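Running log. JK asked me to keep both predictions on one page so they can be read side by side. First protein, sequence followed by its tokens:
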Amino acid sequence: MIFSGFLSLPWWGYVLVALGLTHVTIASVTIFLHRHQAHRALDLHPLASHFFRFWLWLTTGMVTKQWAAVHRKHHAKCETPDDPHSPQVLGINRVLWGGVFLYANEARNDETARRYGHGTPDDWLERRVYSKHTVVGLILMALTDLALFGLVPGTLIFLTQIVWIPFWAAGVINGVGHFFGYRNYDCADASTNIVPWGILIGGEELHNNHHAFASSAKLSTKWYEFDIGWMYIRILQALGLASVKKLAPKPVFAAPKPAADLDTLHAVIANRYDVLSRYAKSIKQLYRAEIERLAHWSPKDAHTLKTLKRALLRVQQLSETEKAKLAEVLKSSKALATVVAMRQELSALWERSSASKEQLLGHLQDWCHRAESSGIPSLRDFSLRLRCYA
């Protein structure tokens, strides 16, 4: 019996079992470790919270405090040399295939745990069992798999379980999610949405959305996106086992005000990524017109403009060489130089942490006045739209 297991299944049955067990682990990571512990986007009933802790102890051996601390540091130091796992710094191959080692190395850093690991469970079970005996849970899971499914199927299922999170979470999300994909929001980092349907990795595929609104319990923001982790949270909420604390803001528009006021300022700052996205769309026509104009008398500048399209239309981290190219080519287009400079000024609204509300409001009102008197139709129209945020 020990070799054949208590359950005899066809080969596809073992595959479905493995996928089911790993999906529970994925759901535990995204709901408990990520959205609940690291970002406090939702509260969990003790029954649900402890189930997730127990399951993660059995299947991953990860310590809650360490995971939350490493992830919070990633957000705080994103795409810098202090980021525990940035493919922009370390290279995509190192993070994709060796992400688990990068995580383990940072998890052993006592300073990271001390600085970023606050507010995580610290009860008797956490101190005496889950954190102290991380390997015991894995041993129990292995023995259970062997007893239920037999030697060969049980071993393969267990190996799949322990490899699943290191590859998909530590490798794919931390690697591919900062390297390939599409972006809804112009964050300062390189985060991307890998695909619009977050099923296999619990919704974590929508990584750019998460970096834009880190404290949101829901990772999907567009109508065509799906976050299965959010579906599970809604089920837990209906059962009284979860309560959502924060969601990404949705922009609301009204008739344009004669002048921006404090409500406009608050709405613009709260919806800053939507503002930047709409700004990029508003200057596309100007960008195309300037390329056509330059193509006649300065083909070289027109070609450079094409290569720097994303830097012109979106907020993007540039190398020193790219910055020099951009500064040079903008000398040939006063209109593009103006919209790029005014985008930087607009971004300063949510970057000036030391300014008072009155100072920020004055900055916004002055920005709108200069945009509407610039003689650039796209800037004028965007300023009118900006005064519609409510």
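And the second, directly underneath as requested:
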Amino acid sequence: MIRALIFDFNGVLADDDPIHMEALRKVAGEEGLSFTDEEYLDQYLPLNDRDCFNLLFEKSGMTLPSSRLEDLVRRKGGYYFQAIEAKTVLFKTTAAAVRAAAGRYPIAIASGARKEEICHILKQSELHDCFTAIVSADDVQFGKPHPEPFLRAHEKLKERDTSLQVLECVAIEDSIGGIESAHQAGMRCLAIAHSYKADRLRRANPEWVIDSIADFVPWLEKEVSK
């Protein structure tokens, strides 16, 4: 039984993974580091900014003090906001999907993005109030593929409905690391083949796979009717 939906943000609702990649690449280049598009998809895409920079420096054999890490995250965020300042980055059918979901269930976000990024985009599109809870990189100690983001989202949803169980939450994800995070949290997962092809996502054994957020409403109506 589905009683709540928890969305990832980047690559699920927002079509901004390439923007995040280029912002990360710009800061990495300033530090004398680099990565390929393939490496980003394979290793960095599911991670939050802090984990991305920690991994970049670790792979280069360099030490990254926490004080310096925060500066890197700040710089990357600045480049990201510069890139999205004059445009909306949501997928065309995101608003319809979010409103349909919110009309059926309490919904939340569990994302590795920074809260100011998520809230800026949602408020710009008048979708912020659709969500009961938003869990960002700022709210957790461990990012995906660790289960903490989804478990924290469940905790926040449970503040509104104390009977809500983890198994009654469905996560909506676009990455293998995200699917692993949801499963480790004890949730079923709907995978959306935005960032990876469906066949690749199926290797992580999500319960459902759809090609696009445009397919979300038909999926929702089918599951609700069961």
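Observation for JK regarding the second prediction: The chain has two domains: 4-16+89-224, 17-84.
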